[in-house]
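I have been asked to look over a protein record a colleague put together. This is what I was given:
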Amino acid sequence: MGEWQRIFVQNLTVPQHSQRRRHFPPRESTAFQCVLKSVEGNALKLKVLDEMSDVEFQLRLSFFDVAYHHFFGKTWRSATRPRKAVPGHPPTVVFHETVYFHTSLDHPSIVMVVEVVATARRRDGTQLDISCGFGILHLFNSKSEPTSLILNDKGLSLYHGTPRALLHPLLHEPTEKNKYLMMMDSSHLQCILEPHPSLEAVYHLLPENTPVSSLQRIPGMLAVHEGDLFQKPRLMKTVTWYLEKLSIHLYPSLERFEEELLELLMSDQGNSALDGNTLAVQERRLHVGVHNGLCFVQPPQVVVVVPESEMARGRTGSLHRKHRANTKPSSEGQALVLRSRIHLTEMVRHPAFGVVLQLEYVFSVASGPDGKTPSVTSLTTPAYMHSIRWAVWNPLPDATSSHVVLPLQGGAQHNPNHTLVYKTPPATMSSEEVKQVESGTIHFHFSTSSNEQLVAAAKPSSNIKEETPPLSKNPPVPSPSSPPSPKMLVSTQDYSQGPGLSISQLSVSPGSHSSKPPLQPSGGALLSQSSEALRQVQEGNPRGAITHLESDLSYSSLVQESSSADQLQELPFTPVHVPIMALGPRKGSPSTGLTRASLARLQASGFPELLDCNKEPVQMVDPSDPLNFNPQREEADLLQNNEIILQFLAFTRTAEDSTASEMWPKTIYFTFQFYRFPLVITPRLQLVKVEPSGTAPFVSSSHILVQIKEDGTLSCGSPGFQLKYMVDPGFLKPGERRCFIHYLAEHTLQIDVWDGDSLLLVGSAAVKLKHSLRQGRPAIQVHHELEVVTMEYKQDATVMTGEVLKHGGVKPIGVHAVVRGRLHLSLANIGHPWEQKQRKPLSLPPSRSRIVLSHGGTSGFHGGSLLSLSAHGVGNVCQAQKLADVDSELAAMLFSRLQEVSAAFQHTSHEASITRRRKLERMLSVRRRESQEGDTGKKASLIMGRHEDRIRHSRDLQIIEAYRERIKAESITSMLSKAITTRHTLYASFGTAEFFEFALKNPYSVQHTVTIEIDNPELSVIVDAREWRHFKELTQTVTPLEEDMFHLHDNLMPRVYLRPKETVHIPFKYQAFCLEHAATMQQGAMELAFSEGKEEPTAPWKASSTQTKHIKVSFMASDSKPIAILRVNVESQPHVVDQTFRFYHPELTFLKKSIRLPPWHTLPGALVGVPGGEPEMFVRCSDPNIICETKKMGPGEPQDVFLKVAGGPSPQIKRFFLSIYTDPWLATPTQIWQFYLHSLQRVDISCVTGQLTRLSLVLRGTQAIRKVKAYTSHPQELKVDPEGIFILPANGVQDLHLGVRPQSAGSQFIYLNLVDVEYHQLVSSWLVCMSCRQPLISKAFEIVLPPGGGKGSNKRITYTNPYPSRRIYFLHTNRLDLLQFKEDSFEIGGGETYTIGLRFAPSQGAGEEEILIYINDHEDKNEETFCVKVTYQ
């Protein structure tokens, strides 16, 4: 048995259920990776195994269709492993095997069954296999999406019995809840199931529904010496083989063979079935494909073979044979020949690769008078296809050209096409040689060279007469890998000789075959191909159809073919920009505890001393001490007022910082944000150098921070800068105290340090806030020494292996970290008692439970009148009020007439109006008595006035009555809605999903289908059971979970069915990704007014109120009436910032950046040592206008995040956040990154290192005159003119001259700021983009110097003036720290020689350095460049 036959027999599969093939068309296949770790529990302790020996265990995987109770595919078996028993632990069998497979049946009913089998020997020595249980792995969810399961802790549950229990007719879905399955106690399988897209590269080599192990060799795949073959599969090189001169010979002759075939067909069916008609051979087809023992590498090509006699006579059309018994066979032309060549482009030189050839006949009913099918009725004539013979050829791997003769096979045996084949002659008495001839033979010539093929094709075949046209004139067969173009369709049908357009092309269509063909074999003489397999070939494999005969020739199909041919295909594209690598989770800057001498010097500097509530010094805490965080102790603390104090003490320059003294800032300020307080921009602080004193001198580069007054002088008070945050119950909302405690325990405070004069970023520091937790102590204080680090992102960084840093990480690609200094910071938390007189009205704290009960004390109805405006929480007491006081609309209606009379009318009470009328009547009576005469006219007017008042009052009462009737229904509805309203408060932060369940009860005695309506998309109902289960396990919520609980309506509103008086738990998830980010302009430090004993009331670190979101959820019954209302109040909380990126980019352009994610195993909560357990990462951005995505490059490959951000005008700063997740449900972000994008004006410079390049910038004045100064981030390489302070006139134009002298070649960014020195405001900002090249080196020198300390070394070199005139030259170097010149310039005459004195500074260690010496002319242009290679040894 050859290699191909062995692999083919060992990998026979069971096809899927016929109903599944009929009702579910084939789709794109999905690849999976299943890691089987271990089995443990009672399943390994069967009593029947105690009496047997050599007990080992094995895992078996099988595909199962739950809907049709059908096993299919191929069963995979693992290697047998022994059982391990450890005292005190359950028995365990460790497998650690990885299985790969792919399937196109993406239906929830398709599952993978895992069976645990014990193999043992009886006492008599016979082998016995015993099933110990089985488990079920669901491959697809209810949405036909592939599942991803990581079962490490809980594991996969096992059931009693064997998988044959799944064939029980009463077993229905869901399988896990069926009463016929019994779960085993304390038995589970540890495994991982997840999609594996890398397997798509070998789909053509591995059939679907066939599991393979990670070490199984697949023909066509390159074998690796170690590791997993399928993690990153590699393919063997393919070669193109050519088959030509193909002919098929059938025994005893072609005519006799076909006559016998037709006789058997007609006798099996009976004459009545044909109604006097005869059968005809309509077409003869040959399927040719490359097979690797497992499957066809590509769909087989289908070509038409014709009798040799028809080729010789030049006939066209189909050959019809009437049933005649007395026909004399002819000895000439008894072969089926192929008129074209076959190109096999997918061949691989492997012993398991073979060429499979299958001969297929197409029959039709001949109803014409001469036994032929008339052309008029050919469109409705049924056709039947039957496989006749097949053969397989296994060429030698090193073969290049030969003539091949193969015996044909037939009968009831397995074949690669999985079809039933016509029987072979009964040759029981014949020898093997005669058997091969009796079944038929196939002849062809093959070669691997196209030139040889063309030469051979030009020669006539030996079996064809000379008058036969040469085969080379026939057009080639279209490749099956691409659809034929319209031109090819025409050319393939315009044969000069041949059958042309066959009847089967018009009569046989993919959808015209019935499930039960009219001709059914009886008696077993003919084994016909089933129509289901035929339909699968024609519908599922369109590339395997006959390309030049079975194509649709309608005009629309031609247009579609041409349009698809014109469509460009997208190729895999890798971005050209090199990704920068993130530093990983940077929870805080490296903080070192201060020495006792340093603490003593800081205390002696006069920093203010902190006292607790008892006026005692605050307890000092070492930041290196471990902290045991106990949240219950913090919440039970009696000192509920937390006074958080930040003291900025000093700033120290590091000894290893090679920055020049001119780059060291003179003033600095800080920006940061604590909790939900506003962003803080501190005032400018002067750096004052500390003078050394005594025997323990202070570090010479240390500077304490001193505040600056408004007039520019230093403050005489205590040094340093102090900020206080008062966090008390009056500031915190109910239930927020727990959030604040977790904020201190988990968050890191990011502090940016800025140069107070140039407004350039010095660096950033990060301090962990967990040491500020008091843990029951009255007060604590921590001193931190934080590294201030600045990140430089190289634009053209070369991708190489990073260096290992001192803390164990990997040096990031394209990122250069520079430590600019150390910040001395004191962080304190002083507790104070909460005064009772300031206490708010008593209210219960919000519940910590994630289950919200309807009408359970959180209802929004508190009693009262319909128009009650009283606040919630004051009880059920309502005081009577005037309608005009509680309703502005009614008040406007009542007093509209009075407002017309008097514009200054003010509303008065009814009692005031009566008093006023009484006074008027008294005044009238006094006047009447004084006049002593009756004034009847005035009396009549008074009576008339009273009558008008009555009319007005009556009108007002009518208005009030009508108004009450109009709003009564609305007010009652509002009150009733309050009675069914439940309120719930969430404390949510960016990117984190908040999960809760609402207990919804059906109050009616009839069933209802409830529709859930939500007015905010950030709150959603969890409709996926897997996501629901994930959040329940994450929050440890113990409530019932139901599969397929919700039905999505057309408008995507979920619906749930409720039985009478039933209560169900509705899962909700709130998650907000969008934050309000207003683009800001860069600001300088703020100035503070200093007053004795008084603090500025509008300081930016005062408390700020956050905006609360209100979300309404309505549960609408079938009659569109609400049965419950849920109002969710969302309080926004600050989120963690793990890393900050700051990019400077040209204004009004797109920033496109690729950031490489850190290795997944370094993230918190990652699993260690799990093979193939790399999780897929997901990203979300806080700004919807920013494009961000992550792509998985493959197993073991790094993962990048791609950003595309639109920049604004200069000097705008855009801030946004990016959250990274490792779980597909995006529950909790693993990391949150903060981004700053500074938009600057761009200036491009192309220059030469060591040479001065000059350019000018245009400055435009503002509306007022300003005193400005230009600052640069690299003063050694960029000089400005004017260098000092100058006047920028209002609305004027002025030039700023730049001189650039780069020190190194390559691309570099330099930042240039124009700052108002009086108000410390940024006027303009530029991004200078330098592209530098190195000059040509004219001479090279090499010297050897001793390393280590010393006095250095003096050397000399000579330079000759090449010009005839006297010239002056200037000297420069790229390493000022290693080389100094005796004179920076010299002047020599024409042709003279000058000696340049060099002094080399001592090096700290051994090694080699290349120092460049630039000799420039009087215009500072480079004349010559010398290279000195210094070896320190």
Notes: Residues 268 and 523 are 7 Å apart (CA to CA). The chain has a mean pLDDT of 75.
